[in-house]
Design goal:
Strand content: 15-25%
Radius of gyration: 38 Å
Number of strands: 16
Number of domains: 2
Distance between the termini: 61 Å
Largest sheet: 6 strands, mixed
Helix content: 40-55%
Length: about 350
């Protein structure tokens, strides 16, 4: 499987910037939003918690149960801190899937995630976000967040012109900030960096050129090891889809047979009913059931009484002679042919 230089460089810069951020990380134990006095919106299982920071004042929190309440609170508040806001998604609104025992480049994780979602989850890839998190440009798995959890919130924030400082996933007491690539996939527009930040980024890019050889070698090994796994996974997905299609077709045929069975009076029930109705002076020569119609012929000493007897049965309706009644010469018998409809 071919790997583009753009993908390799993208993962490399993510890896490099993440490692440098660890080296220069402040010793503060506060969260990202708390250190920079950003307002915070937490998406949890029951709704939303909005914590507003105002310069020189304690944070003010609101518990909101619906998107309508969130939109109303955003529009009615005039806090300067709205220019920067961090979104936190609680653990019960995300799903983490590990798909490799070793660290895998970010773009490879996304390729494997697309196959894994189809093969081992009930989710539609078109209605979910796949996030890797800002974990040095490589990881062993990925996070799944439904569009219905995050997309409506992003839309409301966009309408209220709020700027998003970060999006953080919470899992097992740890916080995983989304990488720039994650935010791009989610359609989150980040605030423009200042001049110092741009200068630092340019310097980091210049330094990263000297280590591109090592990174490319690491990527080359991981790519070769995973190319075969991706190919096998794709074949497995095709087999699963074929099996599911065959199962659905078989299920439709079975339902059609069951519906037909329910709509048809059993032959044994017809025989039992005729045995009860016909007298000892009547003999059947033939009996044929076609759909919901029954055709019978035979001999009887009192053929005229057969129609009323059959008409009184709960499983027959509209009985009539299917031809003239003929008397047999020299015998006290009449040949008859009767047709009727079956009650379903």
């Amino acid at each position: 499987m071919s790997v583009s230089l753009k993908q390799i460089l993208g993962s490399f810069f993510s890896w490099w910037s993440s490692n440098l951020s660890v080296l220069f990380k402040r010793t503060s134990s506060k969260s990202y939003s708390a250190r920079f006095n950003y307002s915070r919106l937490t998406i949890n299982e029951t709704g939303y918690v909005l914590s507003l920071h105002k310069s020189g004042a304690e944070a003010e929190s609101f518990i909101l149960n619906s998107l309508e309440e969130l939109s109303s609170k955003l529009k009615s508040s005039n806090y300067p801190a709205w220019q920067k806001l961090s979104i936190y998604i609680s653990e019960n609104r995300i799903l983490f899937k590990q798909i490799s025992g070793q660290l895998v480049p970010e773009y490879r994780i996304r390729e494997l995630a697309e196959l894994d979602i189809v093969a081992s989850t009930p989710f539609d890839p078109q209605s979910t976000y796949v996030f890797v998190g800002n974990r040095s440009g490589s990881a062993k798995g990925y996070f799944i967040v439904k569009h219905s959890v995050l997309a409506p919130v992003l839309k409301i924030l966009k309408n209220t012109k709020a700027k998003i400082a970060s999006v953080v996933l919470m899992k097992n007491g740890q916080e995983y900030s989304l990488s720039p690539l994650d935010l791009k996939h989610a359609g989150v527009k980040q605030p423009n960096r200042n001049l110092i930040g741009k200068s630092l980024t340019a310097a980091l890019i210049a330094v990263s050129v000297f280590t591109i050889g090592h990174f490319y070698w690491r990527h080359y090994q991981a790519s070769n090891a995973l190319a075969k796994e991706i190919s096998i996974a794709r074949e497995q997905v095709k087999e699963v889809r074929t099996i599911l299609a065959g199962r659905n077709a078989l299920k439709e045929k079975l339902h059609a047979v069951l519906d037909l069975k329910k709509a048809t009076v059993p032959t044994m029930e017809v025989w039992e009913e005729l045995s009860r109705l016909l007298t000892d002076t009547t003999w059947l020569a033939s009996l044929r059931i076609q759909g919901d119609e029954i055709f019978m012929s035979g001999y009887s000493k009192e053929a005229a009484f057969l129609i009323p007897a059959i008409e009184a049965s709960p499983i027959f309706k509209e009985p009539s002679f299917d031809g003239p009644v003929v008397s047999i010469a020299g015998k006290n018998q009449q040949r008859f042919a009767i047709k009727a409809r079956l009650e379903k």
